[in-house]
Each structure stands twice: as C-alpha cells, then as structure tokens.
Amino acid sequence: MITVLLADDEHLIRGALASLLTLEDDITVVAQAGTGDEAVAMARAHRPDVAVLDLQMPGLDGVAVARQLRETVPGCASMIVTSHARAGALKRALSVGVRGFVPKTVSAHQLAQIIRTVHTGGRYVDQELAADAIAAGDSPLTPREAELLSYAEDGAPIADIAARALLSSGTVRNYLSSAAMKLGAENRHVAARMAREHGWL
C-alpha cells in the first residue's frame, strides 16, 4: 500500500483528490494539509511514501516543502501538482529533488499512475511544462537577489527586508537594484512580480 500526503490550500480540491485516490486498491491517503508548514508537520508525523504538494500554498510553497522533506523525511518522494505552472518553478522543483511535476488538469487515473511511478523511484514531468522550461532559460538572479525579491513582494519597506535578511539597508538596496536592473524593471515591486511570473521566486 502506497501512503500519501495531500497538501493543497483549496479544501474542495484536496477533498476531491483524497476521495478519488481512495478508490485505488494500492493507494491510501494518510494525511492532508492546507498550508506548507502543516504539510511538513504532517509528513514528519505520518512518514508517507509520497507527498503530493500544491505549488502555491500559504507559508511555505510546494518547492520549499519538498526541500524540507528531502532533509527531514528522506523516505518520502515529493511531487508538485499545480494550476500555476511556470518554467522557473519546474527548475526549482527539480533542483530540490521533486520527482513529479504535473498540472491540475491531469485526471485522477493519471495522478494515481504518476504516484506509483514516483513511489518506485521514477520521475514524471508534464511534457508541455518541460518544453516551457527549456525555452525559458535560467534565472538571471543570484540566490540572494531572489531571496530579497521574495521579501519585497508584499511591499515591505527596505528596513523590514534588511531586518529579516540580517543585512544592512544599504546592502539590501544594492541587491534589489541589481535584481531590478537585470530584469529591466523600474522598481523592486515590479521586479518581484516579474520574477514570480517567470517562476524564479
């Protein structure tokens, strides 16, 4: 029996997926979560074979959850199911060991097959998403620039970003200016939005 954790902030979708997967003879949903932090806690508590993670959730996103699970629950294979697929997000997911990356348009039968593939050590990446990732190219941002842009997304002032990143305000300004320049954005807020749209955050 393959044990599964489902993490999605949309309760209706999560419940429907759980109901459909329980119809499979060899799959059982042992835990559900509505946020990234909850997903990590549930995975630690239940030690599932496969974690099916929504890309965008409150708190930690699916990629950040997968990164933590690789370290704390190494026996759990992670896969991302998303309706907001971006090429950069696929690259980030693969870089942290995610073994499946599929759109939410996939059928329940296909999802069950992909869970089996991932559980046995295989990998499944939606062909269209893979083609987009190849076409998009790599992020021009350094990891630190991407981190600081993610802090700037909600309009936080420089002083708050600096405190959060444990850097001086001047250093934060320099990083954010560099990131905006690389993306051809007029300010850090536009740069953050552009980077998110490309899946680089």
From TrEMBL:
InterPro entries under this entry?
CheY-like_superfamily, Sig_transdc_resp-reg_C-effctor, Sig_transdc_resp-reg_receiver, Tscrpt_reg_LuxR_C, WalR-like, WH-like_DNA-bd_sf
* Domain Response regulatory: residue ranges: 3-119
Q: Does the keyword DNA-binding belong to this entry?
A: yes
Q: Residues bearing 4-aspartylphosphate?
A: D54
Q: Does the keyword Coiled coil apply?
A: no
Q: Which domain of life is it from?
A: Bacteria
User: HTH luxR-type domain: from which residue to which, for each copy?
Assistant: 134-199
CDD domains, from UniProt? LuxR_C_like
SUPFAM superfamilies given in the database record: C-terminal effector domain of the bipartite response regulators, CheY-like
Listed GO MF terms? DNA binding
Keyword annotations from UniProtKB, A to Z: DNA-binding, Phosphoprotein
Q: Which PANTHER family match?
A: TRANSCRIPTIONAL REGULATORY PROTEIN DESR, TWO-COMPONENT RESPONSE REGULATOR
Q: What is this protein called?
A: DNA-binding response regulator
Tell me the organism. Answer: Streptomyces mutomycini
User: Which lineage do the record's taxonomy fields give for this organism?
Assistant: Bacteria, Bacillati, Actinomycetota, Actinomycetes, Kitasatosporales
